[in-house]
């Protein structure tokens, strides 16, 4: 039973209260009594508007549903657009403006590069992500399918020199593209030295050359006459050629190169939202405690790997000497952003005088900002933001009024915590249809604190399906990526950012590569995000970050954005093209295949979320291909099945049968997990199976198609059962 502390009119979880008082407030300059008074006043001030915004979402959805029902068989895009404008779903266009955000770290403003998203509930993963600022290119190539296993280059239990030679050759090919030598290849180098403050390369043919652009050499480690590393820079990103003739790899290389270190995950979103399973006060404190550890630099995690005990901590900064003898350092860690939850969910960590839970997003905003104040005051071992900013990603906002609400709330939090105005920066997730259609207005509302907009195909598709639930049956899920609305949405996002002055000032981001084991395919496709004008994109692992970073050496993002600036195309009409099929002609086999795919994905993710509290992980799909899954992927699959069920493409009995059959598939895929509880042993008693079932059969009635209400309720049920057994 949760214990509470009574503060004025609010009940605060004792665990949260003690954590804040004992671990967070000391060192912030804030006193406990005043903090909790301000806390209650701030929450109370914003709860009514939070509720009004959610009521408006529901009202708009009801109006849209009614319109589609009345327009069955006579849909007209112009009438539809006029209707959406009349009800305020499409807002009036704003005048031109330019964002005016100050004190932005270079990682957000100038450096284009990969971005990780990591669940804050898992300290080890969070540390790995924060430390992914630098990654071994040799390791990334050796351990992935970038390098073919043909001709004896297979991955073995021990180091395979044949594969190693391919790795080294491939890595030096990348060097030739990013930091080319004049009239030579890095493969031809016998030795790297520093001559007259420049990088010099002695070649196998006896000649000497240097970099095609000498300014790319910016520093070294060790002695100038015997450097152990050479630091190079291209497109604002760093590469480090590491030298060690005694190293097992270095001694096989004529130049003594033991590895090439790549500046990789420039920024990382530390996530309190889609990838975590924080459903009660206990979970929220765990999330906040890990965030405190990251901000103070003392987070650690001890685990066993390959039979050895390993303790993971944050990496220190990397130090160098420039060619003129001055010393400097580069951050050893990714710049960390914190993603709060959206406006929808409430939390039992704090209860008001009427016994109601408070909005979880308001709690997150205060607590994560309070904790990050330690970074601003330099209370920890390391510094996250050198510019004195706190970066908060705010997801799942619908339209400019919700963004304005966030802006107003952030101002109040700044006052409450004695922070300068606009210390709290905001990243606006462009993942809801009403935000996509009104993105310029949304940006305008936070023009003095915005640092980030990001497309999110997965959530955006889920919202597309739910918003137009009554319009008709949706196209197959695999066809969504080639649909007109999606292409227009992606282009519109970039255009809105550039028109608002994001270039060299803020991030324009793209979504996740969801297949962490298919790196060759990622390298072939994900470069398209850069060519579309995005200066960051999500990757599923530190290894993927190291590989994706190579794209940013190949493409000059500034040049791409310069070409795209001033584009006159408008995308609203194209984004309103609803991806439905007027006269479905799918075969029974096509329908069943779609149902199988969706059901297996839902069950594979939900069973880990509900039963084990795992919010994001590699989940094998129906073809046993590992996919990174979170609530956004779940939202698409559950909404898609709900839509087809709603329009009679499939029957309730067919869906029931599919779910049960796919539960057996998922059980089989997880049979090696000793903590796994099979769903098919007893469907009625399996909380996970019932959660998956609810997501489909109750999907049409969920607010905006979100999965959180059902998942949270079912996870709480499992935790209660576990507590009872104890």
3D architecture notes:
The chain has 726 residues and is an alpha/beta fold. Among the domains are: 136-263, Malate synthase G - maily-beta sub-domain; 588-725, Malate Synthase G, Chain: A, Domain 4, CATH 1.20.1220. 43% of the residues lie in helices and 19% in strands. It is built from 24 helices and 26 strands. An eight-stranded parallel β-barrel has the order 3-12-17-20-21-22-23-24, surrounded by six helices. The protein has a five-stranded antiparallel β-sheet with strand order 4-11-10-9-8. A four-stranded antiparallel β-sheet has the order 1-2-18-19. Strand 15 (318-321) and strand 16 (327-330) form a beta hairpin. Helix 2 runs antiparallel to helix 10 (400-416), helix 10 runs parallel beside helix 12 (439-445) and helix 13 runs parallel beside helix 21 (631-646). The mean pLDDT is 96.
Number of strands: 26
As residue ranges, the low-confidence spans are none
Proportion of helical residues: 40-55%
According to CATH, the fold-level topology of the domain at 588-725 is: Malate Synthase G, Chain: A, Domain 4
The CATH architecture of the domain at 588-725 would be: Up-down Bundle
Distance between the termini: 13 Å
The number of distinct helices, counting runs of at least 4 residues, comes to 24
Overall outline? globular
Strands across the major sheet, in which order?
Answer: 3-12-17-20-21-22-23-24
Family: Belongs to the malate synthase family. GlcB subfamily.
Pathway: Carbohydrate metabolism; glyoxylate cycle; (S)-malate from isocitrate: step 2/2
Binding site for acetyl-CoA: 117, 124-125, 275, 312, 540
Cofactor: Mg(2+)
